[in-house]
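Following up on my earlier thread - several people asked me to post the actual chain instead of describing it. Fair enough. Here it is, all 114 residues.
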Amino acid sequence: MVHMSSEAKKKLGERIRRARLDADLKQSDLAEKLGISQGVISNVETGVSTIDAPDLPRWAAALGKPIMFFFIDEDMTRHERVAAVLSMFPEERVDFVLQMLETLALTLREQNGS
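Reply from S.P.:
Thanks for posting it. Predicted structure:
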């Protein structure tokens, strides 16, 4: 299980709530779709608890949203989006991801002759 800050839990909960309302679902409707209690939905939406990463695709499908909807705010700058995406990786994999991005950037630079 990934440990999220309380602020991150709250933001994820707000996005879950927005998606549920967009789908015109009550908490009990979403709970039924997911096979969990309405209390779990409430706790996630208020940031008391969070969703385990392996369960997020199921929640996204039930709410009719892409997974990235729950992490990327449309008002974010490009740098904030990059930071948000990188924060999704487990801490022990961030260096590996950065190395991949550096290699990709250098390869693209070489191909463009810059």
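The mean pLDDT is 88. That should answer part of your original question.
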